[in-house]
């Protein structure tokens, strides 16, 4: 009877070990599943972060281009104003010369 009791306890121990292994397997599977989901979340987060940084870079690039365009416009506007001033100056000199000739 004692031998049967020992065999029964040994069988119970084996069953418990199998249950523990199953539990460990399920725990590892769930853990891996949530790790994969978290890694996927991180990947998506990095992707959208990269896209947002790329958008900021593009907006800064086009802002710089627009500022350069404004600077060029202002530069040529100033050159044109200088040209107008010079042409008015020479026109005034020419008018003064004509006035002196007529005088």
Description of the structure:
By secondary structure, the chain is mostly helical. It has one helix at residues 2-102. The chain is rod-shaped and about 150 Å long. It is built from one helix and no strands.
Quick rundown:
This protein has one helix at 2-102. The chain has 103 residues and is mainly α.
Beta strand %: under 5%
Question: What series of H and E elements makes up the topology?
Answer: H
Q: What is the approximate shape?
A: rod-shaped
User: What can be said about the biggest beta sheet?
Assistant: none
Number of strands: 0
DSSP summary: helix tally = 1
**Poorly predicted segments:** none
Helix content: over 70%
Q: What structural class is derived from the secondary structure elements?
A: mainly alpha
Radius of gyration: 44 Å
- Average per-residue pLDDT, rounded, comes to 90
Termini, distance in Å?
149 Å
Topology, please?
Elements: H1 2-102
Write out key terms for the chains shown.
mainly alpha, single chain, 103 residues, 1 helix
């Amino acid at each position: 009877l004692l031998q049967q009791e020992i065999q029964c306890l040994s069988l119970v121990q084996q069953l418990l070990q199998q249950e523990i292994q199953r539990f460990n397997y399920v725990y590892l599977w769930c853990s891996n599943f949530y790790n994969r989901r978290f890694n996927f979340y991180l990947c998506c987060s990095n992707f959208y972060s990269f896209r947002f940084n790329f958008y900021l870079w593009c907006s800064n690039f086009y802002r710089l281009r627009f500022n350069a365009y404004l600077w060029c416009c202002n530069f040529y506007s100033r050159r044109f104003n200088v040209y107008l001033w010079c042409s008015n100056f020479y026109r005034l000199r020419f008018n003064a010369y004509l006035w002196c000739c007529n005088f």
